[in-house]
Amino acid sequence: MATTLAKAADDTAAAEHAARIEHVSKSFAGPAGQQLVLDDITLDVAPGEFVTLLGASGCGKSTLLNLVAGLDKPTVGSITTDGRPALMFQEHALFPWLTAGKNIELALKLRGIPKNERRDRAESLLELVRLKGAHGKRVHELSGGMRQRVALARALAQESRLLLMDEPFAALDAITRDVLHDELTRIWAETGVSVLFVTHNVREAVRLAQRVILLSSRPGRIAREWTVDIPQPRRIEDAPVAELSVEITEVLRGEIRRHGQH
User: Fold this and answer.
1) Residue 260 pLDDT exceeds 70
2) What is residue 59's predicted lDDT score, i.e. its pLDDT?
3) What does the alpha-carbon distance between residue 57 and residue 204 come to, in Å, rounded to a whole number?
4) Nearest to 86 by CA among 107, 69, 100
5) How many Å separate Cα 68 from the centre of its chain?
6) Could you tell me the pTM of the whole model?
7) CA pair distance 115, 49, nearest whole angstrom
8) Who contacts 249 (Cβ-Cβ below 8 Å, separation ≥6)?
């Protein structure tokens, strides 16, 4: 399966972008009228690139991700993607009445994969996320980290060229989160999939990404971006990761103070 995904990425190597967000604004109706949540966001994600969206709570990160996923439409501007993105949430959203493998097979079924191929493909995806032998396990038998691995395998089953991840590790303990950082980095490198990853954790953003995009608050605008030139594999405690995290945190704090948040 990793080979198939890598081939899909190779086939689109000539594509200009995995996602292109052009002058996007988003407003929602509120008690005081229309509330501007995102303001004039322009951002490209290159094929095979790993980008993190970082910002304080309420800055519009998840709203932007939902727009890229096609779950909502921008009020102004346009979004194009290289095919239909796959989306992974903070909650695993697995069906508890299905086994780990059957959750993945359902995604394959929705893609039109023949029934006689689904089991093998699901097994391959479970092996990719290092859950070999877990096909028959029920959701309640899995730890939080294992559930997120299954959710990742299900997202990869869609064979999308763009993976959207909305704080998928936020609810996990620090050790499990660190292990899954390693796993996600490995899978990203093996498959060549593009990733747009939302987080409010500065070190997580630096640990994972090639590029960190900081959104301001009220409304969300691109305040600043950083290219992360630290070689992978990285550890969250590595000195270069810590140093860049301190720099980004200071800018983030400035944005929070400027917008009067606490």
Assistant:
1) no
2) 87
3) 15
4) 69
5) 11
6) 0.88
7) 33
8) 202
